[in-house]
Amino acid sequence: MVLSFRHYRSETLTHSHDDFHQIIISHHGVLDLDVDGKGGEVRGRQIAFVPAGAKHAYRAQGMNRFLVIDLDARLAANAGIEQLWHQAGGGAYLSVARDIRFGDLENLLAVKPAFSQAGSDLSYPGARDFPLMTGVNANAAVASWEHARDLSGQYHMLPFLNDLLRAAHTGTKAGNVRYDPLQEQAGGIPLRLTRAMEWAAARLNETVSIAGMARIAALSESALFAAFERYVGCSPMRWLAAVRLDFGRDLLADSKNTETIGEIARQVGFQDQAAFSRAFSRRFGRSPAQYRKQCQLGDK
Q1: pTM for this model (two decimals)
Q2: Which N-terminal residues, if any, form the signal peptide (predicted)?
């Protein structure tokens, strides 16, 4: 299982992947998506489940950020995730019952629970969260869990996906599922907060202050903090730090980018390469140099 926050570009790209499903969850912005000829959007409480082998095209306009989960197809089948998806309607676009905030996802990704050995008695941590998993596929599930742990250490995302899909449902329009504007009022980010976020994201190589963001949002500093905690799930500076690192990762992954790591560090707002490398390693578990090398080798 591979998890990452991604920023999508405005040009339309198309591809498919045969060995893993892809779940896309919006933190901010709108992703236009076409999955095997069925058009729709990922935004707010509407997520996408792109099944393995499905040809899909995608693009996004303006500032955007999405959590993308590449979920091994074998793991999804053995852990009951695929069955929950089918019970939710089996569509590419699903509406979920609750808000998904950036800060909550960041906290979830930061968890590193202990992993104990398991047997067919389903005694391993989190087993109670998967009632669809029976003794028939228990051993296979354990093997898949071990594989997921070896790949990323993020097997604990499975209970999150289980809860997410359990209360999900397919949109009413099977051919072209569009976002309900009322969801923006129920769980989206208010326009004035979006304005401040876009302003800050356009100035990553500058000093961005709370006062400046509050001014753009037409809020007091305390009201800005409260709005971020409510709608984003973290403080403004924690959000900005994550955006800086994600943009830096995008630059490192770009094979056409010939800038040095030090130049990239300064471009995303770090004073020196050492500070950028420390923060990058803490967030992604590998140094900028290691990540760039892996991208060059096609092993992201």
Answers
A1: 0.63
A2: none
